[in-house]
Amino acid sequence: MLQLTIQGSKLFEPVVLGGVQWETALKGEPGKLTFTVVKDDVIAFNEGNRVTWTVDGKLLFVGYVFTKTRNKDHHIQVTAYDQLRYFKNKDVYIYKNKTASELVAMLANDYGLSVGTLENTGYKIAQRVEDGQTLFDIVENALKITQDSTNKVFCLYDNAGKITLQNIKNMQLRTVIDNETAEDFDYTSSIDGETYNYIKLVKESSKKGKREVIAVVKDDNNIAQWGRLQYFEKISEEINLQARANSLLKQYNRKTRTLRIKGALGDTSVRAGCMLPVLLNLGDIVNNSYLVCKRVVHTWEQGHHSMDIDFMGGDRFE
Q1: Are 99 and 122 in contact (CB under 8 A)?
Q2: Residue 107 pLDDT more than 50?
Q3: How far is the C-alpha of 245 from the C-alpha of 231, rounded, in Å?
Q4: What is residue 142's DSSP assignment?
Q5: pTM of the complete model
Q6: Is 278:260 a contact under the CB 8 Å cutoff?
Q7: Residue 282 reports pLDDT greater than 50
């Protein structure tokens, strides 16, 4: 059973023309619901009105109308976003001795947003100055520092109207992706993206205008094979720089691989950040491990529910 509601002047359950799409991404984007309704003499709604999408009694999406596009046949194409749309706002924040989860709680409180479960990220960030950054960037910077220092990856998302932060290792599902469940796939391997075999970290010297190289780590074998692919970062916070350099080399000293699954059988539990078992022969590798969903697009159309998934994961996919 599918139910779409819009809270306009009244609560409406509009006639939907064609399909409904629900899209989630791992980083830097709000959840998005797109659909087309038929305008009649009854329905009336505006930008900012609340939208819900429920499938078989499970509330999947709570958001707000942001865009309406109308044609001559009185069909209105609607784009709605969840609360994370407001994380595109830019602001200035200076904070000290906070975890990424405490940071998310602070931002949500400042902007009056509803919060669900914020898993403790554990790592205290000594100090950050974020000037004119989006809230997404502010949180992503904190999560990146946390990942570099702990090797833990967290996913920020809106869970049906509640901002949530969760370790992706706790988002494993049993929905298997293989040749039977995937209609088709595209697979690419590359060293042209975020592949680095030489890590160089630099910290400001106490003398103005001077810099001091703090840590350099490299993989001579991969440099001989691929050439020198250098990662450079200017460090300001007080952290274990050698540990960060080693962690960065571990993360980035490999090919990046992208995998897009097309037309898989839909499962409402699957969203960006989830980890799924993927069992596919991809040519240069045979994958039989859990991979992380980087982007998921669900489509409900003509009684059929399918999903397209972009994967990343471990030291194989980005």
Answers
A1: yes
A2: yes
A3: 10
A4: H
A5: 0.84
A6: no
A7: yes
